[in-house]
Amino acid sequence: MSASTDNSSRCLFFPALGSLYAALNTASETILRAVAGIFLTIHGSHKITDPFGAAEMVEGLGFYPGAFWSLLLACTEFFGGILIAIGLLTRPAAFAGMFVLLVTVWFHWVTMGQGYSGAEKSLLWAAILFFFVIRGGNRQSIDARIGRAF
């Protein structure tokens, strides 16, 4: 659904803002994708410098062998974040990141017994990545530039 269709399908309190909303629609989605990818990359940057450092933690969650899953976690966060930020292989990278975040929801909510307050950030980030699993990278992405997307 295009932004102009979105805005014309509802009655705005300030109709003059409709053109502004339409003009910023793609840019705001691109900014959200870039920020999500950059933040995920930053979050994974310490893991990529010690890719096996989380082996014991992931085994504690039931993922064996820990060294394999720790490496996969580090790569998913660091390289997946870069892919999301630039919009290359956006859907699979966002799906992998979302999966990691849903595991952290389980870890905080159930394993640690922290409930919603412990899982809140992971839930929010999983929802953001779910948006990009469904929407892809948009027209301001490498996926769009090469004309191929999942």
From TrEMBL:
The family this protein is said to belong to: Belongs to the DoxX family.
Q: Name one Pfam family in it.
A: DoxX
Cite the PANTHER family for this sequence. INNER MEMBRANE PROTEIN YPHA-RELATED, OXIDOREDUCTASE CATD-RELATED
Spans traversing the lipid bilayer: 67-86, 93-110, 122-138
Q: Which UniProt keywords apply?
A: Cell membrane, Membrane, Transmembrane, Transmembrane helix
Q: Which GO cellular component does the record give, naming just one?
A: plasma membrane
Q: Coiled coil: which residue ranges?
A: none
Where does it reside? Answer: Cell membrane
Tell me what topology the record assigns in the membrane: Multi-pass membrane protein
Name the chain's protein.
DoxX family protein
Q: What is its main location?
A: membrane
